[in-house]
Amino acid sequence: MNKKVENLALSLQTGFINKNISSLEKYRPKILLNDPSSKRKVLTDIISELNKCDEFLFSVAFLRMSGLACLIGTFQELEEKGIKGKILVSKYLNFTDPNALRRLLRFNNIQLKIGDFHSKEYLFKRGDIYNLIIGSSNLTADALCSNTEINLKVSTTKDSELISSAISQFENQFKSAITVDDAFIKKYEEAFSSEASKNYLINQKNIELKNQSVAPNKMQASALQNLELLRFNDKKKALIISATGTGKTFLCAFDVKNFKAKKFLFVVHRANIAHAAMRTFKTIFGNSTSMGFYSGNRREKESDFIFSTVQTISKQEHLEQFSSDHFDYIVIDETHRAGAKSYSNIINYFNPQFLLGMTATPERTDGADIYELFNHDIAYEIRLHDALNENMLCPFHYYGVTDITVNGELLNEKSDFNLLTSKNRIEHIIDRLAFYGCDDGKPKGLIFCSRNTECRELSDGFNRTGFKTIALSGKNTEEERKDAIRDLEAGNLEYIFTVDIFNEGIDIPVLNQIIMLRPTQSAIIFVQQLGRGLRKLKSKDYLTVIDFIGNYSNNYLIAIALHGDTSYNKDSLRKCMKEGILGPSTINFDKISKDRIFASIDSANMQTKKDLIADYNLLKHKIGRIPSMVDFISHGSRDPFLYVSYNGNKYKSYYNFICQMTGDLNMSLESNQARLLEKLSLEINNSKRVEDSLMLKKIITDKSFSIKSFRTYIFNKYGYDITLETCNSILNNINLKFIREKKDGSLLPVSEIYSFKIAKVENNKIEIDSSLEQALNNIDFKKYLLDSIEYSIMTFDRDYHKNKFISGFILYKKYSRKDVFRILNWDQNPVAQNVGGYMISPNKENCPIFVTYQENQYDDRFIDNETFEWESKKNRTLKSPDVSEIKNNKNLDLPLFVKKDDAEGSDFYFISYLTPINNSFKEVINKNGDRVVRIHYKLKNPIQEKLADYLCSLR
User: Fold this and answer.
1) Predicted confidence (pLDDT) per residue in 403-460, tens digit
2) What CATH number did the domain enclosing 932 receive?
3) Rounded distance, CA 792 to CA 689, Å?
4) Residue 423: phi, psi to the nearest 5?
5) Is the pTM of this model over 0.70?
6) Cα 114 to Cα 372: distance, rounded to the nearest angstrom
7) Read out DSSP for 201-253?
8) For helices 690-702 and 779-799, what crossing angle results, to 10°?
9) 782 inside domain
10) Which end of the chain is more exposed for a tag (fewer CB within 10 A), N or C?
11) Residues 225 and 181 in one domain
12) How does strand 129-135 pair with strand 298-299?
């Protein structure tokens, strides 16, 4: 029995007989689910298997374009690698989409047949091992990503009875099935488009589409409650922040009804939106209330409910047609425009009982404070990603594709106009649009370009090849834009080219493609443009988004926009890129474009003074006061530790940033107090070991407490014990003895240099000491230190999961070398050059290993997700003290920390604790000609596959 079969046998015993048997995770039987709470999708496992297989066989009852859209990029990669597969689908209920069949025929590596059955089976061959997934998931986006499904994945050898039976059954069905070709599809389309099939498809649509006009959805119900509560507390204004397509107009109609408004005014910037709003209100109120327009040549001012455009109602002669208290309820739609004088005229003139503002994007770039207009009272906030997770919007499939190289030149922000509009680029764009397609095969697309001349030239180029397109700019009239939209809806146009006139304030529900042909300069604008196509429509299954990614410096903004992560924390963005998105939407990048995103994240300066101040002011405007570090977290804003660590730790505390950069505070701390706040903010409250912050908090609040009570407190809060050794280490760090700085040519503890005395131990009790006690008399010192502490605790708690917390470290969280030595209870932070890639602690209890994976000096690598090959420092033999200690000291903890390359910065992912494999120690000459000892380690926690792929992939 070879090693692979032995490992498989052990894994099957773990899965089917005894869960305590140690085995390789990759071969164990596994239940595959769609579980948002753990960010699991069946799709993830299927893509993973496809990426590793030599051959694949699919047998599914239903195939939809939405399901193919999830896999189309992977199928393309398999075709390029020459990996062949067979796909067998069913005619059952005529639910399989002929467009999906037609699209699959484009792949030369896939044999496609259709039969009559109802199975769901995915089979992958990799060498002598087969992986079989069998269960309930069809090839639809809902089944692969969001529905409640259950599937079983099992691994077998090629000689197993199970796999022999499964392959035999598949081949028999495949042999008797009908080969899918153009002739078959043409005939099948007649059955697919029959009334019975259409009714079946409509019944699959989410029930909320049928109920939307008669009852509040989840978001609306919560917002209505909050609005009632605000009015109960005598608030006269409120702001609703809600993504386009989530039913803001229905929401305000429901609230106007609850309010029992007698006179109501709805103000918006375009007449067509005012007409649509009136239709919505008539759905709710019927004929019980008179409704009219006050816009253009219509002056229906006697109506109870008036719908008007800002261009008309804001003029003084029209305002004076009404008394200031004529309306008891006013709605300002698209409120982010309210900083304009026309809107201010309306708000300043009228005095309603209640004023409601509604917007998808309250953030402004002109300095206007929209939040202040509504007294900072936000009734409800649901951004695009929240709305997608709540199934309020149409799912989308995003494809980041590599823009073409023209004449050997990469497209970037400064590319010549002739390159942007070249024949080769037009052909490349058309090819990719056809490849990724859309839900029904009939594109209705919006194409965003970087300049108007490019729009016109590309539109002309498309039209010369037979497309029906138009280019629109700010020079086109409102009526010309309306005509273009009507032509798009009617099928007389396929694409509208534009720069930015459709960023906001326009609704085109029929859009099934959004094409990005410009560099992303703003995450807000990206989301606005994406939102144009996300409104649900019964005839639309999903939105296709194709983003042509050139060599742009701001590519990292794509990750921010797609994932809604506005922390500007590089590690958080990398994590988002690896994990994907929740629900039936998917995000796909080809390899080159993905590498460009990661490279942009690495190189981007996410701590520019301008951006830090802008985000600070934005949050200050939103909440109406100086924001705390905790406020940044609570409102999903920038990671506030970026203010602490700005420009190589220039400010060292958030308080310093406010004093020095904003003018909102005058420095009230003495120099030693400011320095103490800096050290505690930077070294204690960085969220990497939460016990430090918790002990510091108890020192401040309790003044004195027993070590035993603190250990009990930690156990009750997190479910793990901390040792006396760890308590001493925490106290050592809080007293600033762990970190050292140079003074007079010597490295000394910070506490010694500045005479800091923070805490002491007497009779097994921890007590506050003089330096901290005196500093706490300063109100600002205490306020900003406690804020720093709460930031640290909240950040740790957000990342903490008991099953991912391993002896002080959270799996896959990043740590600096200094963090690692502190958490491992070292008394002092060692000199970096003495550490190198590893260092054994003075007490011989631990030896952290640090690996830069893409470094050329050593050949360290993951053999598989549970085995790591590693080389010692050079000039080592089996008898060297460090090698001998690693081999023979069974109590030596060996935590592994890995980063991809130096471009990532100085922090490393915590991967696992290691166990050396005894018979693997070998003296070798490595690739650089150095004598080293090569060792194989077993990972106690197998590395997450997505992280392994990221670390191992070359840039």
Assistant:
1) 887 666 667 767 776 777 888 899 999 999 999 999 988 999 999 999 999 999 999 9
2) 2.30.280.20
3) 9
4) -60, -40
5) yes
6) 61
7) HHHHS-THHHHTTTS--HHHHHHHHHHHHHHHTT--EEEEEE-TTS-HHHHHH
8) 140
9) yes
10) N
11) no
12) unpaired
Q: Find out whether 815 and 830 touch, Cβ atoms under 8 Å.
A: no
Q: Is residue 349 in some structural domain?
A: yes
CA dist., res. 709 & res. 715, Å (int)? 10
Question: 75-100, pLDDT tens digit by residue?
Answer: 999 999 999 999 999 988 888 999 99
Q: Which helix (H) or strand (E) holds 572?
A: helix 570-579
Distance between CA atoms of residues 666 and 779, nearest Å:
13
For the chain, what percent of residues have pLDDT higher than 70?
95
Number of structural domains found in the chain: 5
How many Å separate Cα 794 from the centre of its chain? 19
Q: Which domain holds residue 564?
A: 394-603
Cβ(651)–Cβ(788) below 8 Å: no
Q: How many CB atoms lie within 10 A of CB 226?
A: 17
Element (H, E) at 389: helix 384-389
Rounded CA separation 194/571 (Å)? 51
Is 918 domain-assigned? yes
Q: Give the DSSP letter string of 799-860.
A: H--GGGEETTEETT-EE-HHHHHHHTT-SSPPPHHHHTTB---TTSSB--EEEETT-SSS--
- Rounded to whole angstroms, the Cα distance separating 936 from 930 reads 18
Q: Would you give the DSSP letter of residue 406?
A: B
**Closest among 565, 542, 556, 545 to 400, alpha carbons compared:** 545
Cα→Cα distances 919→571, 622, 914, 931, Å: 37, 62, 15, 19
Element containing residue 952 per DSSP (H, E): helix 945-952
Rounded Cα distance, 90 and 96, in Å:
7
